[in-house]
UniProtKB/TrEMBL annotation:
The keyword Cell membrane applies. It comes from Paenibacillus apis. PANTHER family: MAJOR FACILITATOR SUPERFAMILY (MFS) PROFILE DOMAIN-CONTAINING PROTEIN (PTHR11328:SF24), MAJOR FACILITATOR SUPERFAMILY DOMAIN-CONTAINING PROTEIN (PTHR11328). This is Sodium:galactoside symporter. GO terms for biological process: carbohydrate transport; sodium ion transport. It holds the Pfam family MFS_2.
Length: 448
């Protein structure tokens, strides 16, 4: 009989993803500004630090997956990392936002080492936290529910930082006070570590590791012999740039374009309302329209909403916030549709190759997300360099127009570019239904 997951475990699992995404969102939103405007590191140099560290972090994902898969302990395969690593991540978060008052060279070295360490420790928790959902129950519906709750928790974590992060900084002294960042990092780091620890403490791994293992060499076929997955991953690489670019540049945008850091919270409200409405509307739309068509539709209208917002200029912040809400609506829609398409590629892999390869698919998707984050930081750094940005510089029309372009038109171009790869996504609705029927027959035969 399939065992149900107690409500307590579900709540704490969602809470663990909430804490994890609070850490990630705080780092994504504020670390570059902290480096450039508080530590005095050049924008191009600071961006290079983030890009290199992000690439290293992304490459560690499959390595961490293999390490966790080989782990055997009295706590299980994945739980040990959730019990012990969160406290190290909290310490690394504090280290990243600590102004030691050292020389420029020493400050640069400390900053680079701290951020690289943070990325490595984040991976140590990230992979096991998501993988835990695959072994927490033998019931597919329970596992799917855990993944859904994890996404909801992760979204709430983004919301908390998007809306509350700037308020936390302002309460501790403002966005140009290094002590405010340090105190905020301590508070967020400890809170997130507790949530992740409680996930590991309360969860149980109910599926034992299989005796027969698929070799890495064979398992990697799930990716390179799966054309629908490859084209979807290429599209997601570009699609993920939309939120990454907006999140990375928004503090510069509100300070220099709207000249009020408090607008970060208002952008956060637009994000919350837009994303939730977009995600909520998508399941019903999936019953009426093919997934590929709906994904293209969301990218196209996301591009149009960003372009219209840019053309409105900076004269009416309220109207721009409303238009940003439409942009986030289509981001939310694309997120849900692409996740559903990703699950279809796993079924396609089982149908074509004889094994599902969920682990390699999820780790590759995580790699793509992090690599996209690195690319977005590189684009932001290059953009700030072209604008000759220096910390606390006077507001000029050139700077405002440049930041507006980076905040709105670059995401618009990414929305448009994300359509191109998915045009070659070959899983039609008819084929998807055929694959599901075939897999059901195989499983019935094997069980019989």
């Amino acid at each position: 009989m399939e065992e149900r997951v107690p409500a307590r475990e579900k709540v704490f699992y969602s809470g663990g993803l909430l804490g994890q995404n609070m850490l990630y969102s705080f780092m994504s939103a504020y670390i570059l500004f902290f480096y450039t405007d508080l530590l005095g590191i050049k924008a191009t140099t600071a961006s290079l630090i983030l890009v290199v560290a992000s690439i290293v972090d992304a490459c560690l994902d499959p390595v961490m997956g293999m390490i966790a898969d080989k782990t055997r302990s009295r706590w299980g395969k994945f739980r040990p990392y959730l019990l012990f690593a969160p406290w190290l991540i909290a310490a690394a978060t504090v280290l990243c936002f600590w102004d030691f008052g050292a020389s420029p060279g020493a400050t640069l070295a400390i900053s680079a080492a701290a951020y690289l360490l943070w990325g490595m420790l984040y991976t140590v928790c990230d992979t096991p936290l998501w993988a835990l959902s695959s072994v927490i129950s033998t019931a597919p519906k329970e596992r799917n529910l855990l993944v859904t709750l994890g996404k909801i928790g992760g979204m709430l974590g983004v919301v908390v930082i998007t809306i509350g992060g700037i308020q936390l900084l302002l309460s501790f002294g403002g966005e140009r006070n290094s002590r405010a960042y340090l105190l905020s990092a301590i508070l967020i780091g400890v809170f997130a570590a507790v949530l992740i620890f409680l996930t590991g403490y309360t969860s149980r791994e109910r599926i034992a590791p299989p005796v027969e293992r698929i070799s890495f060499r064979r398992n990697i076929q799930t990716v390179y012999k799966n054309k629908p997955l490859l084209v979807l991953l290429f599209s997601l690489l570009v699609m993920n740039l939309v939120i990454n670019l907006m999140q990375g540049i928004q503090l510069y945008y509100v300070i220099y374009v709207w000249q009020d850091a408090g607008f970060v919270m208002k952008i956060g409200i637009s994000l919350v309302v837009g994303m939730i409405l977009g995600m909520g509307a998508t399941p019903k739309l999936l019953h009426r329209f093919p997934k590929k068509r709906l994904y293209i539709f969301s990218c196209l209208f996301g591009c149009l909403s960003c372009t219209i917002t840019f053309l409105l200029g900076q004269q009416n912040p309220v109207l721009i916030l409303i238009m940003l809400g439409f942009n986030f609506f289509f981001c939310g829609m694309a997120t849900v549709v692409s996740t559903s398409m990703l699950l279809d590629t796993i079924d396609y892999s089982e149908w074509r190759l004889g094994f599902r390869g969920e682990g390699i698919v999820f780790s590759t998707n995580t790699f793509i997300s992090k690599f996209s984050g690195a690319v977005s930081r590189m684009m932001i750094g290059a953009g700030l360099g072209l604008l000759h940005y220096v910390e606390n510089q006077p507001v000029t029309a050139q700077l405002q127009n440049g930041l507006s372009f980076m905040m709105l038109m670059l995401p618009a171009l990414c929305f448009a570019a994300a359509i191109i790869p998915v045009l070659f996504y070959g899983i039609t609705e008819q084929q998807r239904i055929h694959v599901q029927h075939e897999l059901e027959k195989r499983r019935t035969t094997l069980s019989g």
